[in-house]
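FW: tagging you since you asked about this chain on Friday. Here's the raw sequence from the shared folder, copied in full. Didn't touch anything.
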Amino acid sequence: MPNLSDYKTEWEKTKKQLVKFSKEALDVAKKGEQELVRLSKKSKLHIDSTAISLQKEKLYYFIGKEYVKTNGKTEKSAKLKKLLDELKAADKEQKALQLKIKKTNDNEK
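HL: got it, structure written out here
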């Protein structure tokens, strides 16, 4: 029959290994969480950029429609000017997002 002191020494060894394992598991979980946060931020930037691209396509459609409506006159209508201003703003916003994406990619290297 095993001695009680054998159980105590084995328990101490096992306890130390369990504590070490739990610390390592916690470190891995924290690193995984940080990686998930980083990836979700990067994904959000790409989704926002895609949304702006779709918005720009829609604006191109409306600009073309308004241009045809004015029969190609050299003077722009108020609606056409507004659409062109929206397009410029969308371009500017998309360029800013592309710059953020590039910075994120550069930071990974």
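FW: The chain has one domain: 4-108.
HL: agreed, and The radius of gyration is 30 Å.
FW: great, closing this out.
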